[in-house]
Design a protein that fits this description.
By secondary structure, the protein is of the alpha+beta class. The protein has 5 helices and 8 strands. The protein has a 4-stranded antiparallel sheet. A 4-stranded antiparallel sheet has the order 5-6-7-8.
Length: 172
């Protein structure tokens, strides 16, 4: 065991070894410049995965780069302002206090071309997955447009599918 006591490694001053081991490596008690005590293995003090501080350096660097965790959001990102932007038939009006179920995307209040108000997640709007309040889907169905399985199966396969359905129902 190499005695590291008293050595200064970046912001850490090595004080004393502990009885703990991590992968047969001694855990050292270290005093950081900020005043915190950190427990670091000798591998992490001298090896490839060099530990430079108790964690305060990482926080300082993140703050300097503008990535500090502001308001609990991932990476400190500010939410995009999409107010006034048009997404096919929906125009984003204002954000609500609601958040999406899975990715915590901001729910926006949108106005459809038909005049209805629709709440939609920003992620769905930006990806083009939510295009209208539902009025365009109803129009397509009324006009005999393809929806559901037909859109997945394509034109030729839909003809085959309708023949199979007619055969199952005894029409052929």
């Amino acid at each position: 065991m190499i005695n590291l006591a008293g050595e200064k490694i970046h912001r850490l001053t090595v004080m004393r070894p502990t009885q703990q081991r991590q992968s047969r490596s001694v855990i050292w008690e270290c005093l950081c410049e900020c005043g915190n005590i950190a427990y670091v293995s000798s591998r992490n003090l001298r090896g490839k995965r060099l530990v430079k501080s108790c964690g305060c350096l990482l926080k300082e660097n993140a703050y300097k780069m503008g990535k500090a965790n502001k308001g609990g959001r991932k990476g400190g990102r500010k939410p995009l302002d999409i107010a006034g932007q048009k997404f096919t038939y929906l125009t984003a009006l204002s954000p609500t206090k609601e958040r999406g179920l899975y990715n915590k995307s901001i729910i926006w209040r949108c106005r459809c071309v038909c005049g209805k108000i629709k709440h939609a997640p920003a992620s769905q709007l930006k990806k083009g997955r939510m295009k209208s309040c539902g009025c365009k889907t109803r129009e397509m169905k009324a006009a005999g447009g393809r929806k559901g399985m037909a859109s997945r199966w394509g034109k030729g396969k839909m003809k085959y599918f309708s023949e199979l359905t007619a055969w199952d129902e005894g029409e052929l």
